[in-house]
TrEMBL record:
This is Glutamate--tRNA ligase, mitochondrial. Belongs to the class-I aminoacyl-tRNA synthetase family. Glutamate--tRNA ligase type 1 subfamily. Keywords: Aminoacyl-tRNA synthetase, ATP-binding, Ligase, Nucleotide-binding, Protein biosynthesis. It comes from Paraglomus brasilianum. GO terms for biological process: glutamyl-tRNA aminoacylation. One of its GO terms (molecular function) is tRNA binding. NCBIfam families: gltX_bact. One of its GO terms (cellular component) is mitochondrion. It holds the Pfam family tRNA-synt_1c. It is found in: Mitochondrion. Its main location: mitochondrion. Its EC number is 6.1.1.17. Residues 35-319 form the Glutamyl/glutaminyl-tRNA synthetase class Ib catalytic domain. The lineage of its organism: Eukaryota, Fungi, Fungi incertae sedis, Mucoromycota, Glomeromycotina.
Amino acid sequence: MRKLQVNPRSFVFFARRACTHTHTLQAQSPKQSAVRVRFAPSPTGYLHLGGLRTALFNYLFARKSGGKFLLRIEDTDRARYVPGAVENLVKTLQWAELTYDEGPGKGEHGPYYQENKVYRCFCTQERLQQVRLESQKSGREMVYDRHCLHLSAKEIDENLSQGLPYTVRLKAPDGDLVVKDLVHGSIKFSGKIIDDAILLKSDGYPTYHLANVIDDHLMCITHVMRGEEWLPSTPKHLLLYQAFGWIPPYFAHVPLLFNPDRTKLSKRSGDVNVEDFARNGYLPEAVLNFVALLGWYPPSANEVMTLDDMIRENDTQTCLKTRITDAVIINAFKFSLEHLNKSPAIVMHEKLDFLNKQHLLRKAGTPAGLDELVAMLRIMVRKKLRGSEGEYRLENEYLARVLNTIKERIRNVKDIPELCEYFFVDPDYDTKSAEEFRSKISDEKLRTTAVNALEKLNLIRGDNFTLDGLKMAIDSIIKDTRLKPKDVKSALRYIITGTQVGAHIAETIHTLGDDICIRRLKSFRRY
C-alpha cells in the first residue's frame, strides 16, 4: 500500500499529478486504445459469488475484445484488511481458471496494490455523526453539510498550527450529473445527493475513490465493469476524472444478486463463499457457468457452457479453419454487454446442482475428463470408504467403469462415495436403510431370488458375462420365480449392493463382475 505524501499547506499536488499524467496518457481514450479491464477486489475476506461473477464478466469481455484482464487489489481500507486474503483471491481465481494478464506477480503497471476543487475538512467524527442523525430525522440524503468549505485562510492556518487532524474532500458541483452506463443507459444524479467525497484520510492515506480513479487511469483501464452497488459512487469518480483532466473509461454496472426471497445476497446470508463451493464438490466449470447466467443471457438456447463456450460461439472453429476475416471471428464471440440484464438476478442453488450434473456428464464423456474423475474417485475410496477388496479394485479401468455406471445419478462430486460404496466393499445388511427394505419384502422372495440368480449367473460366467447376457438372465429369473419384475430387481439390488436405489441393476452387476456378484449371492444364502 502506498501512502500519498501531500504538502499540508498546498493542494498543488492534485493539479501537478493531473498535468504530469494527462500529457503522457491522455491519448489512452477508450475509443483509441486496446481494451483493458480490471477486477479490483478488496482483501477483506473470501471471494463471494458476486465477486466471481464480476471477475468472469471482465475476463470474458477482455477475451472477446482481444484485450487485457487485470487483477488489482484495492487495499485502501487498512482496518478491514484480512491477512491471507490476497493469496486466497489469487488461489480461487486459479481454481476457476480465470487467468489474469497483469496483477500481483506480473505486469508492467504495478504494483497492483493501492495508493480550487478540493478542500480540507477538520470536522470530528462526533460532529459528522450528528450530521448523519439530523439527516436521518429529516428524511434527507446523508451528504456532508460543507461546514469546512467556507473556512477562511486564517481559520485554516490556525487549525493547522494547532495540529488538528483533517481530511481532504472533493467539492462536488451543484448541478445534476449524467452517468452513461453500458448496461443501464443514461442515469441522472441530482447534485443535491452527490456528497463531497473524502479523498485523503486524516492519516494521509487515500480513500478507495481517489486510489481507484488514479490507478485505473495509470493502468490505462478502458472499461470498468463492476457490481451495481457501485453505481452511486460513479458520479464521484467521474468528477475526479474531470478534476484531473482525464478521459474517463466506459462504465458497465452488472445487476445485483438476490436470494429467492428477494433479499440482497450478501456474505452474511451464507452460501456465497466460492471456496465453499469448491470444498462441497462443485466443479469450477459449473460454478462459472452458474454465475455467468446470473444477469447474462446467452444468445443461444443452450445454457450449459464451458469457459470456452462462453467466449466463442459454436461455429467459431469453422471460422478459424476457413481463415475468414478477424471481424467475422470477433462477431462469433458469444459474451457481450448487450446481453446483460438490468434487473436483479435470483440465485437459485437448484440451478447450480443441475449445471454441475451436466458438467460432470460432459467430463465423464471425454477421455481427459474421465481420467480426472478417476483420479478423484481413487482418492475418495482410499480416504472415505471403509476398505476395498484388493488393490486391483482401484485400477483405472475398473474406476472408469464404476463412474460410467453411476454418472447419471451424480449431481455433485461429494455424492460419489455414497453412490458407489458397494463397488468397493461388501453390502452391510444391518444398516437402517437395509432393515427398512427387509420390512417391505418377504424373506422367501429374497431367498428365491438369490438361489435363482446364483444359478443363472453361474451359467453365463466368464466370457458370456455381458450386459445383454445379464438382461436375459434377469428376464429368466423373473419368469422362473413368477415374481413381479419390480420385486426381482429390488431383491437383486438389495442382495448384491445392500441398497434400495442405484443405477440399472444389470449395469451394476456387469460393472462389479461375475466373481464379486456370485460370491455375494453365496454369502447372502448363508446370511
